Amino acid sequence: xxxxxxxxxxxxxxxxxxxxxxDVLEDPLQAPCEHAFCTACIHGWLVHHSxxxxxRQMIDVxxxxxxxxxxxNDLNRLQLHCKNREHGCEMVCSLESIDRHERECExxxxxCSNAGCTVQIERRNLDGHLxxxxxxxxxxxxxxxxxxLTAEDTQHNCVxxxxxxxxxxxxxxxxxxxxxxxxxxxxxxxxxRHMVQKxxxxxxxxxxxxxxxxxxxSDVRSLMAAERQHxxxxxxxxxEKREL
Length: 244
Fold this sequence. Notes:
CATH topology of the domain at 5-104: Herpes Virus-1
Structural class: mainly alpha
CATH architecture of the domain at 5-104: 2-Layer Sandwich
Oligomer: single chain
């Protein structure tokens, strides 16, 4: 169904009216014969018919196309009253922006957000209603922290509620302690593995240093032995020189 033509300010071109409901086009589609319809109207028509309701030419859903751009622009520029006019809203805006306004309109009827409440109230009065709604949630006046939702809840046992709350807090604390414990154990295991790995690396480096030192000592001994041999040869050469 289209927009009620009585909501519009000023003259509305005949070409912007739905050929079926005769109201201003809503979500329009156009047939090959250039007659325009509201999407809901033409889909409903084609369930029982296979022709255009204006000139009886054969049409099919697959042949329907969006409205021409210039017609769409003319449609969007039309000025109309908010649907909540009868409730006091005086807003007049373009068809293009009317949906956005009506979603936020202070005069729109909206349901109470409290579970169980069936009251429909204007958005601007919602806060006042929530403050006195019989389905609103509120805490026990005795200070136990219990949330009162219904009249029967006012007869609750504060001591029992406090015990329940204490048990919940104790369970939550135990869970948190266990989580902290597991986290610390995980960190310690990770650090322990890291230290073992570092120890293994250091041990390998120490063994490598020992091996290098052993090779160096062996080289030193070889050099010392070579030096003694060289000295002995020099002494022998000296003796032979004296004898000569």
